[in-house]
């Protein structure tokens, strides 16, 4: 009788392990606010993430999303609440100085590397983004933060930046919401 009870317990434990392993993992799915049906970021409760169709493992602590790819490369992104159901996902873009001479801090014309986006900052405190979005900027050079105050088309935006030689690296906020399934 003791061997039969042991076998029953083992079968029950095996069944419980199989059911737990086969259960559906929960995931948060995020989309850009301008396209809420298209998931760009998925964060699974088992520590796996997918960003723009690339798989990672992740941790999320203190509003920093740390992504590690299969080769062990690590990237950190700000993932900051912005209201009840919206977050700001700060994605990195790299720009190269295309003005004359050497850059003087932010001042000058910057063209995205491998892209078409741009920033132009003047010494008078004005800027133009992507050739047509004008405004004024306030630079906190010590902390690497710029406040972009658009003339009329977008809300004020804070970007984080660093400059090394002729390269400007910008962490730009994109509003994201939970994916809407139709």
Task: Describe the structure in your own words.
- With 182 residues, the protein is mainly beta.
- Helix content is 12%, strand content 53%.
- It has one helix spanning 2-22; strands spanning 27-32, 39-44, 48-51, 54-61, 64-68, 74-81, 86-97, 108-112, 118-121, 126-129, 133-140, 145-150, 157-164, 167-178.
- Strands 1, 2, 3, 4, 5, 6, 7, 8, 9, 10, 11, 12, 13 and 14 form a 14-stranded antiparallel sheet that branches.
- Residues 4-9 and 11-23 have low confidence and may be disordered.
Helices and strands, in order, run as: HEEEEEEEEEEEEEE
Strand content: over 45%
Cα distance, first to last residue? 56 Å
Low-confidence stretches: 4-9, 11-23
- Specify the biggest β-sheet: 14 strands, antiparallel
Q: Which structural class is indicated by helix and strand composition?
A: mainly beta
Q: Categorize the overall geometry.
A: globular
Helix percentage range: 10-25%
- Radius of gyration based on Cα positions: 23 Å
Query: Number of DSSP strands?
Result: 14
Q: What's the overall average pLDDT, rounded?
A: 88
Count, helices? 1
